[in-house]
Amino acid sequence: MEASKPARHVVITGAAGALGRAVASRFAGEGARLALIDHSLQHLQSVFAHPEPDHGGHLLHAADVTSDAAMAPVAAAILDAFGSVDVLVHVAGGFEMGEPTHALSRESWTRMMDLNAWSFVAVTGHFIPAMMFQRSGKVIAVTARAASTGAATMAAYIASKSALQRLVECLSHEVRAAGINVNSIAPSILDTPANRNAMPKSDPANWVSTGTAARTIAFLASDAAQAMHGQHIVLDGLS
Asked: How many domains does the chain contain in total?
C-alpha cells in the first residue's frame, strides 16, 4: 500500500477576505495545515473557528503585509511551528478607483503600490529563503486581468497590479532553478459581497466565483503545474 503523503504547510495572506476564505477552505479540504494572515486577529478569529494550533488547527496571525518589520516575526513564528512552508498564496491586496491620471495623488499611488506590489516583496522575502533551502515550493499571487491594459480613473490600481505581475515574473526567474514555482491568477471581477455592494446593477453570474479562483490556485500549487513558471492564468468569467 502506498504511504500517505505528509500534510502540506500552506501560508495564506488576506485570509479573512472572501477569496482568502475560499482558498483556505480548499487547502483545508486537502488536509493541509494552514497559517492564515490578515490585518486583524479579531477578524481572523471571527472567521475561522480554530484559533489554537494544537491538533492540526490553523495558525492565525495579524500582520501588516506591506511592512517588512511586521512580517518578520510572523514569518519566523510560522516557520518555527511548521518547520517548512510548501505553498505561499498571496491574496492580500486592494482596489480603488482614483483620480484621472494627470491628477493622480501621491497618496493613492502609494496606497495601491504598497498593497498590491510592495506587499509581495515584504511577504515573500521571509519565506523564499526557507523554500530555497528545501529546494521546493509554490508561490501564487493574485494579480488582475486589468493589469494588461489601461482604463480611465484606475491608473494607480492597474499600475500596481501590473507591477505585481512583473515582480512575479522576476522572482520566478530567480528561484525556478531551486525548484520553486512562482505564478499568479489574474481574475476579472470576483463575485464577492464587496463587489456585489459596489456594483448592484451588474450580474454577478458573469463574474468569477471565489470557488473557481481557489480551484485554480490549488492547481498552481499542485504537481500538475510543475512546468509553469512566471505565468498569469487569466480568469475571465463572462465579463
From this structure: 1
Q: Does 4 map to a domain? A: no
Q: Enter the pTM of the model.
A: 0.94
Distances (CA, A) of 199 to 49, 145, 189, 193: 31, 18, 10, 10
C-alpha cell recorded at residue 194:
464587496
Buried b (16+ CB within 10 A) or exposed e, 40-51: eeeebeebbebe
Residue 52 predicted with pLDDT over 90: no
Assess if residue 1 is contained within a domain: no
- 178 Cα distance to chain centroid: 21
d(CA 156, CA 161): 9
In this structure, the chain runs to a length of 239
CA 232 remoteness from chain centre: 13
